[in-house]
Each structure stands twice: as C-alpha cells, then as structure tokens.
Amino acid sequence: MRISVIGCGNMGGAIASALAASEWEVSVYDKAEEKAIALAEGTGISVLSSLEEASGSNAIILAVKPQVLPTLYESLKEVDTGLWISIAAGVPLSVLEDHIGTENVVRFMPNIAAASRKSVTAIAAGSEVSTEQKNLALSIASSFGSAYFIQENLFPAFIGISGSGIAFFFEMMHQMAMAGVKEGIPYPEALSIVRDTALSAAEIARKTGKNAIELETMVCSAAGTTIEGVKALQDGGFASTVINAVESAASKSVELETKARYGER
Fold first, then answer.
1. Average pLDDT over residues 235-260
2. Cβ-contact 115, 168 below 8 angstroms
C-alpha cells in the first residue's frame, strides 16, 4: 500500500521514516528536493519530482505548514488519491474539503514524539469518510505511536493536553532538574533522573489503568516527604497554572482555526 508524504520537515520526515520502518511503501515530495533526497537516502523511501506523481497513492499526508497549504490547493485538486490526511494545525476539515475538492479527508494532530514512534495522535474524520478509510488512517497513525479518534471540535482540547502539552512536560522536567541542581545534583544527572521518573510514572499509569489521584495517594505516606511536596505544589497554584496553560493553548488553537476558516493567515 503506497503512502505519499508532502513536506519533509521535522514532522513530515519523522512520519515518513516511521512508515517506511513499518514496511509501508512510502514516497515523499518537498519543494526543496534536496530535503526529500536526504530523507530518502538508505530508507527505501522514493522521491517524487512533482506533486502530480503522488496520484494513485492510497493516502497522501499533507505535512506542510498551515501558511503554506493555501499555495498548494490548486495543484492538489489535480492529484488523485483514496484519502487525504492533513497535519496542518488550525486548518479545519471544512476548509480542506472545500479547497481540495473532496470529502475524503481526515485530520491528524500528532506531537513531536513521532520521530521516536511514540507520538500521541488525534484523528478527526469527515462525515463522508468510510469505515475502511478510517481504518487506514488509524493504521497509518499507529505506525508512529498511539492514536485516538475524537470529534474535530475537541482538537483544541487535545492540543492543550498533548500537541502543546508535551512541551509542558518538558518544562516540568526542566524545573524539577533545576530543583535537583539546587539540592546538589548536577543538571545532566538530575535531568536523566527526572526523565526516567516520568517514564516510570507513565508506565505505572498505563499498566495499572488506575487514575492519577489514586496513584498519587499510593505514594503519599502519612506525614511523609511526598505529601509535603504535593502540598507545596498546591500552595503554589500548580493545579490552576496547569489548567490555565491547557486553556491558553486550546484558545490559541481556536483562534488559528477561525482565521483559517475565513481565509486569514
């Protein structure tokens, strides 16, 4: 089954590489052909010399920046494929359907962990997308991580907790590592400890299926060290700060999507 990826930037390149490693037949196109050639070298990925050569693909992934997408619409209308997949943030399905001239469109919202095949990807499908096409989209997204079908109107919330939210975890990791430095552990070692602690927390949550409060309570011994730290987080407004960060990212997503819907950039 042939998948073509349009755009060989960080996300497009990561997705194409992950698909090729999962034994999909992958073709790539980028206006800067040298980027496509560099990506394809030694991977089994083929390089397209034009957008038109993507015709006949089972699916085409649009991995270009949102501001670039409008410059491609007229050319994309001439390309034939069974399914269009867009990862352009803030560009709704209705806009894609209108400008590409088809209802066979889904949206992906991956995060940057696609390069490690650990992305968390949201999928929204147009009303005319078939079950077979949805299954294809899910199979593609699952090649570079986990995937969740959600309603398109929940994309801003997803961006807040995952697409942008992954950066919030990085910020938390950095600040915890800096706290370790304050307590005497060198930053590289502190960051490694924090990273592995984050992985261990995620694995416990995944393996047990328990909710976060239940797991937190398990760690908090009466009159112990952990409850003191948790109290400090609460006293410092940790909960409201996290909620505000998610709401801010979600609100910005809504703003960008509104502009895309009405042709603003």
1. 93
2. no
Tell me the pLDDT tens digit for each residue of 47-82: 999 999 999 999 999 999 988 999 999 999 999 999
Q: 120, 114, 64: which is closest to 89 by C-alpha?
A: 64
Q: Which domains does the chain have, with CATH numbers?
A: 2-155 (3.40.50.720), 163-255 (1.10.3730.10)
Please give the Cα distance from 27 to 5 (Å, whole number).
Answer: 6
CA distance 114 to 233: 31
| Nearest-5° Cα angle at 253, 251 to 256 | 115
Contact yes or no for 86/62 (Cβ under 8 A): yes
Q: What is the DSSP string of 76-124?
A: HTT--BS-EEE--TT--HHHHHHHHT-S-EEEEE--GGGGGT-EEEEEE
Fill in the DSSP letter of residue 130: -
Report yes or no: 1 and 26 within 8 Å, Cβ to Cβ: no
pLDDT in tens, 224-242: 999 999 999 999 999 999 9
Q: Are 36 and 13 in contact (CB under 8 A)?
A: no
pLDDT at residue 261 is higher than 90: no
Residues 83/87/91/94 CA torsion (nearest 10 deg): 20
Q: Is the per-residue pLDDT at 264 higher than 80?
A: no
Check residue 260 and give its pLDDT: 75
CA distances to 48, 114, 178, 216, 246 from 14, rounded to whole Å, are: 17, 6, 30, 34, 25
- 181-190: pLDDT as tens digits: 999 999 999 9
Closest CA to 41 of 60, 61, 13: 13
Q: What whole-number distance in Å separates Cα of residue 210 and Cα of residue 216?
A: 10
